[in-house]
Amino acid sequence: MNTSKTTYSEELVFRPLPQLVIDANVNPQEFAAAQAAAQADYLAYWEDAAHELEWFHKWDAVLDTTNAPHYHWFPGGQCNIVHNALDRHITTGNKNKLALIWEGEAGDSKKYTYYELYREVNRLANALRSLGISKGDRVVLYLPLIPQTMITMLACAKIGAVHCMVFSGFSAKILRQRVVETQAKVVVTADGFYRNGHLIALKTLVDEALMGGSDSVETVIVVNRATLDVHMSEARDIWYDALIRQERSEAATEVMHAHDPLFILHTSGTTGEPKGVIHGHGGYMVALHRSLNWVFDIKPTDIFWCTGDLGWITGHSYVVYGPLIAGTTTVMYEGHPLYPQADRMWDIVSRYGVTVLYTAPTVIRMLMRYGHQYPRMHDLSTLRLLASAGESISPDTWLWFYKNIGHSQCPVLDTWWQTETGSCMITPFPVSVLKPGSVHRPVPGIMVDIVDDQGQAVPTGVQGNLVITQPWPSMLLDLDRNSQKYQSTYWPLKTHWYWTGDIVSRDEDGLIWIHGRSDDILNIAGHRIGNVELENAFLAHKAVAEVAVVGIPDKIKGEVGKAFVVLRPDFAVLEDRNEIIRMLKEHLRKEIGPVAVIRVIEFVDTLPHTQSGKIARHILKDREAGIAKDPSLLAES
Ligand code: WTA
Description:
The chain is of the alpha/beta class.
C-alpha cells in the first residue's frame, strides 16, 4: 500500500497496492457497479447472491413483507445451511481440504478435512436423533473453543435443532436462565478447558445451574477436554465420546425452510433482560457467503483465522458458518493470546500460514503494549488481509496493526455489525481507500442512513442514529418469545427502519465513523453488557441499597464498568471498605461471570435522579468523562 495524502480529504489515507487490486475478487469497478445495481434493485442483488448456493427447492419470492417488520427472506425456499457449509463440499475438490485447524492452549492441535468434519458432524447428528432431538428442539451449548463445539453446532443445524451457545465466561446462574428461557432438552458441555495457564472447570457449573432439576433438560453431554474428575449423574449425563462411538458417519440433512431458526444467541438489552436473537438458515447463509467472498476476498489457498469466541456472533458467523460455506480453512485457538507469552498469535499465524486475520481492537491493544519485538519474532509474510470488529479501532491501534502485523502490505478492514445483523454491514473492501478509524461504507445491498431521534436525516459531519433502511438477508428473524420487544426495540419509527442503537456520523467523503451507543449498553472488550443487567446483579447483594453503573474508558478493554453504590445502613457503618469491594466484585462474578468487568466501585451517599425518579446515569457519566479528559487518570488494566 502507498501511504499518501490525497485531495480525497485532509486525513491520512491508505490506497491498496496495485497487485491487490489485480487479485481482488471484486475490483473497484466491479464494486462500484455492484453498489449501483444494489441501490437500484437490492432484491435482485440478493437474489443473485442466493443463486450462488445450493437449495433443495428455490424460493417463490425474494422477500415477503406482509408481516413487516417481521420480514421473511426467500419464502418457499428450502435449504439447510449445513448442506452448504459441509455436505456439498464432499463431492468437490474440497473433500480432502482442511476445514478446521484447531490448537489447544497447551500446544496440542487437531486438523479436520471437510470429509472428516462431515463424518464427525454426522455421527453426532445421529446420536442427537437417537436422544429424540429433532427439528425445532433447542440445545444449549456451554462449551469452550474446541472442535466439538463447532461439530455440535453443525450437528444441531443438520437435524434442524436450534443451538443456543452460552459463552463459557458466563456464570452458572446465567446458564440456568438460558436453559429455562430456551427450554433446552440437551445441554452440551466439557469437563473443563485451558485459559491463560489455568484449568477452568465447566461441568461443575452445569451441575450448579441444573441443581434442583430442570423442567426441560433430559441429557447433558460432556466432552472430555481436560480429563477432569467430574461427577456424572447416571440418569442424565453422558460422555460425548461414548455417545457417538457406535454412530454411523452418514446422516440425512433435514430439509429446512429458509426462515426456520438456526440458532439463538442472547445479547444485552437496555432493560436488563437479555434478548434471545434468532437467526435462520436461508438468508443468513446467503449474506455470509457474499461477505466471505467479497469482503474477505477468500481464495482457494486461504487460511482464515477469526479470533472470536464461539459464544458470540463473531464466532458463529466468521469461525464456523461463513468460512465453511466459503470452503476455506478456518483456524480456532482455545486459549489466551498472552499464553505462554505475548507472541502466541503471531506464532500461530506463522506456523499455519494464516492469510486473513480477523480480530478485535481489544486484542490488538493488549498485544501492542508488549511492543513490536513479539511480532518480529515470527514470519508474518503469509498475511494478506487484516480485519477488526466489535468496537471502534482508534487510528493509533489501526496503524500499529497495519505496520507491525501487516508490514504496511495488508489492508485493515474495520467492520461494523451486530449480533442482530448476522454479518458485516459497514466495512471497507480490500480495494477501498482506507481511513483509519472509519468503518467506511455499507456493503452492496445494505442501505443505511443517519437520522435524528425523529427520523430526519442529519447533515454531513453531524452525529445521529444509525438506521438500516431496507431489510437484509442475515437480519435477525425475531426475539425468542418476545416479538413485541423485537418490534419496539428495533423498529421504533413508523418508517420501518431498523434502529441500530449506534451513534455515528458521515464525513465529507461519505465515510461513516462510529461514536458509540445511544443507549445504556457497555462495550467491555467488545462484549455488550447492559448497564441495567450489571445494576440488577449488584442489587441482588444484601449490602447494596442503590446503584448506578456507567462505562469508563480503559486502555485495553476499551470500556469497563464503574459502579456508584449506596450501601444499606448496616453495611455503611462497616470500616473495611476494601472488603466490601472484594465481596461485591466476587458477587458480580458469580452473578454474571468474568465478562462483567467492574474496575472501580465508589461508595456514595446518594445518586442523582431524574424528575421521574430514575437514576440519572448520564450525570455520572458526564462527570466521569470530565475526569477521563485527563489521560493520567485513565484506569490502568
Ligand atoms: C459495536 C459484534 C465500532 C457497536 C460484531 C455495535 C462497533 C455493537 C464495531 C454490536 C466497529 C461493532 N466499530 N463499534 N467496527 N463493530 N461495534 O452484537 O456498538 O456483540 O452496536 O456484535 O458493537 O456488538 P455485538
